[in-house]
Amino acid sequence: MTGQDVVVPVTLDLREFRHVPRSADECVALWERLEPVVLSLDPRAGPRVRFDLGDEGEVGVWFLDPATAPQPFGIGTRFAIRGVLEPSEIRHVCTVCRAAGTTTYAPYTCAGCDDGRRVGRVCEAHAVFLDGSLRASCTGHAPACPCGRRAAAWCSGPDCRTRKAWCETHLRRHPGDPAVAHCEGCYAERFPACEHESCTGSGYIRCEYRTLSAMKPCGRRICIEHARRWQVYGSHSRGLALCTRHHQQLPSTSPEALIDMILAGTVARSGRGRSATRRRVSLPRISIVRHILINTRRTVLDMEAVDGLFSALETHLRGRTPRDTNLSTALDLLTGHRASRREDIERFRQQHLEGHGHYHRLVQELHRRGRHELAEAVTFSDYRPRSGILFVHVPARLQGLFRGKGGSFVRQLEHTVGVRIQVERG
Question: Model pTM?
Answer without folding.
Answer: 0.58
